[in-house]
Here is the input.
Amino acid sequence: MREPGGIGPHVGLKRLIAYRQGTLPAAEREDLQEHLSLCPRCAERLLELRNFEAASARGDAAGPESLRQEAWESLAEHLPRKESTIRPITSAARRETPRRRIPAFVYAAAAALLLAVVGLSIWAVLTVRQERQRVALLEQQLEEREEALTAAQRSLAEAERQLAAARGSSGREASRIHELETRVAELIAALDALHRTSPAPERRDQIAAAQKIEVSVAPRFALRGQENPDDAFLRGGGAVNPVRISTPADRFMVALSLADHPVFDQYRLVLTDRDGKMLWEGRRPGSALLGDAGTWVSLRGLGPGRYRLRIEGLHPDRRELLAEYVLEVEPQEIQR
Amino acid sequence: MSRQRQPIEMIFEQLRSGTSREESFRLLFDRFYWPLFRFFEHRGFSTEECQDLIQETFLRVFRGIESFRGEARWEHWLFRIAANTASKAVRHRAAAKRAGQAVPLEDDTLGDSPPAAASGSPRGAVSPAPLRQLLGKEMRELLSEAVAGLPPQMRRCVRLRVFQELDYEEIAEILQISPSTVKVQLFKARKRLQLELGDLLGDCDL
Here is the structure.
């Protein structure tokens, strides 16, 4: 007869053995005894263990010797026939084993494998170097664009100032006013065009694409596949196209999603300025990143400008750069 | 010292070192054949199945001997392998049954269902009469509630005795106390339960 009520999951053999050996802490021991009193299956397993220990210690036969002999003969057929075919464990025994001749094709295969590994390593190093150069190029292009924007804004301000001055004069300079108005309109159009331009697709790049990590950067949190298309989202394995975030938002969201299982114990996010000075740091355990999980990055006090966001994977003994992004924080509206 | 009673550690070392490996393995087999036989037989396997399962267990031991680091007791390591082998066999049997194949075992009380819980007490004379024949559902619920209010050790003794139908010695093994303590706890429990349940307790054998 079973007593009603929940009794929790069954106890594993390891824990039952620890209980038998008296190595469980007192509280755990109490819980286990309570479970055993409610769970016939686990109580039975414990008694089986006790019986097995007792029978092993006694070593007496429980049936005819012929049965054991028959079992051994059957088992022996399935064991390796010769002693030499069983791999010894200790180094001394290994030395005693006669050296076997290794066929030539094994050497050839090993050499091919070695070459492949070396080739792959060189390719990886070159790729990383190439990717870094491309990131630097992208930054340079962004800088040029920013300078062009600043120059255009300055010209527009100057043209507007001249226009206001001309309008304030006696009105005899109608042609001058018209000329300046045209100039201002042209400059506004040019400025808008500059703002509309995003880096060309060929400037976009990928680093650390091999890592199964999805990164989204946006002013607010959104589930994968439900992002607002107006948000500056970064997706995929480390695209380095810049993300623009307007300053009225004092923070933005970095969402990390692991496609599979966490490769690293922890993931570290670092926001730096262009010189590499750390401005913000956040860590998330790998287990917290399955599905949609995010962390807020504060922009308070940073102001417009360009920043770098690095995402690293951390193991106790090493760290690995997984992705690097350029973030561009800009004013929400252009002051005219 | 006879080869048969050679310490397990010595046999084990010989196995790991690779010297006289088959001979050492035979010693190990001889030492643990019957304990394993009893274990599988207790789980309800036939003699033929016990032979197969013992062979499977020792093959696993042979293949895994290098991975055994000696952190656990050798007997416990072997027991875990045997228990996993038995569970695997039960799963295969269940899968074969689902697939409509003929299965060699006759009843459904093997594997994960302990005999005491699934088919009444296997212990015959030493256990109390099956309670389900004596008590109705209502009575069982009343008894469960009353037992839940007992002090921890007393409560566990009663549950193991009444609901799992174990004898004093088995209860003592499970709770790691002496059989006489079990007797005292059950005696006191009976007094307390009688006060609470009166005649409802009936001839329930504590």
Q: What stands out?
A: The domain at 8-98 of chain B is CATH 1.10.1740.10 (Rna Polymerase Sigma Factor; Chain: A). Chain B has two domains: 8-98, 128-201.
